[in-house]
Write a structure and sequence with these properties.
415 residues; mainly alpha; 18 helices; 72% helix
Length: 415
């Protein structure tokens, strides 16, 4: 038994996750009632990641800022620019795809129990209030904008603290990072439970009526992940981008697909950044920030579903308005983390650009919830894997300009 356990641990984490997926699918198809107990593994895994992530972000950022020396360069400016560009391009790709492959919907009932924001001002206002949230409340509710704000301010305040205090912060950061590694090693069991629950609860039959809509949505997300993102990476690092792109999709995207939570994937992304040998001072800030503002998948969802509503109502759209929608969807997507329900609840906001009533827009939101089993999974996988991708891209681009060796993928190296 011990030798079997040892052999299992010798397999790569991705291989173990694939085994977990296969077992989850087999159990869901053969004994859906008899194996319901496996769903607890999924709930425990996601719960553990979500509970450790806020504390991890708080201590890592505090420690990184407190020991940051004046004049020491980070890549945050470049990373934020990459986040913004990729989110805007995602909205633009979705708009162009919706023009080429117009989709119409059959609208029946609306999504009940949800209140969308009244405008972009409300979205931005929510984000601003999240920044000044009570630190304890921010930790309890996983408000990462608030956690980041407090961590940065406390880190600055602790810059002149004694070395013993900074060493204590470092010890806490290392201890929490170790907890994260233990939790991530349980990913195969957790994802087995999540796959089983998704297949038994949702099935795939409910998605067949929305085949064309899903093709446009997922097609845009795959195009961004496999074409747009690699082009942006290549422009910056001037090397074949696909080894890095595929590694981010494999080690971050797969986990995010099944957890459907950018917050839960923060520990996974930080672990991957460590494997890629990236600067800890940078990724400890860029990864949680990316989980709140780097939302290419959300921009796709907002644009495609809004234009589906426009096509359904027979509203004519000119290119100027479509471009405005791309910008609006990018801005809205960046604020999606501050809105309950995420990207779907921002569809009424984008729909108002075309004079579509809230009643009709909420029916589109209801369609979004129906296809959410795939839409939300792919959206989260794209969003979360891009956080690592652009953090690594910014660092590799800087090292390329300095003529230094870079790359933690084996295929990415430069002397």
């Amino acid at each position: 038994m011990k030798s079997l356990f040892h052999k299992w641990n010798q397999l790569s984490l991705v291989t173990r996750i694939i085994v977990g997926i296969i077992i989850g699918v087999i159990l869901a198809l053969t004994v859906p009632d008899g194996a319901k107990w496996v769903t607890i593994f999924g709930s425990l895994f996601v719960g553990a990641l979500k509970s450790v992530a806020p504390v991890l972000v708080l201590f890592l950022v505090m420690h990184a800022i407190s020991k940051h020396k004046s004049g020491q360069q980070t890549n945050m400016k470049s990373i934020i620019i990459l986040y913004i560009i990729s989110t805007f391009l995602a909205g633009l790709v979705a708009v162009v795809a919706s023009f080429i492959f117009p989709v119409t919907l059959t609208l029946k009932t609306g999504a009940e129990g949800f209140e969308p924001p009244s405008g972009i001002t409300e979205v931005l206002q929510t984000l601003l209030f999240n920044i000044v949230d009570n630190p304890v409340n921010a930790l309890i509710n996983s408000n990462y904008i608030g956690i980041l704000a407090w961590a940065v301010l406390l880190g600055i305040a602790l810059k002149h603290a004694p070395d013993s205090t900074k060493n204590m912060l470092a010890s806490f950061s290392d201890a929490i990072s170790q907890l994260v590694k233990w939790i991530i090693n349980l990913a195969p069991l957790g994802i087995m439970g999540l796959v089983f629950e998704a297949l038994v609860t949702n099935g795939l039959s409910a998605l067949l009526d929305y085949g064309k809509l899903l093709l446009v949505l997922l097609g845009c997300m795959f195009f961004i992940a496999l074409v747009v993102n690699p082009i942006i990476v290549f422009i910056n690092i001037r090397q074949n981008p696909y080894p890095l792109v595929f590694r981010c999709l494999k080690e971050s995207g797969i986990t995010a697909f099944f957890t459907r939570s950018s917050a839960a994937n923060i520990p996974v992304n930080m672990s991957l950044c460590e494997k890629l040998d990236l600067d800890k001072d940078t990724y400890s800030v860029s990864i949680p920030l990316g989980a709140t503002i780097n939302m290419a998948g959300a921009a796709v969802t907002i644009s495609v579903l809004t234009l589906a509503a426009v096509n359904t109502l027979g509203i004519e759209v000119d290119m100027g308005t479509a471009l405005i929608l791309s910008v609006l969807s990018a801005i809205s997507a960046c604020g999606a983390s501050g809105v309950a329900g995420g990207s779907l609840l921002l569809i009424p906001l984008a729909s108002s650009l075309f004079g579509i009533s809230n009643d009709v827009a909420m029916q589109v939101v209801a369609v979004g919830f129906i296809i959410g089993v795939l839409q939300d999974s792919c959206e989260t996988a794209l969003n979360s894997s891009s956080d690592v991708l652009y953090t690594a891209t910014a660092e590799y681009a800087k090292k390329r300009k300095e003529g230094k060796r870079y790359g933690g993928t084996g295929s990415l190296s430069h002397k």
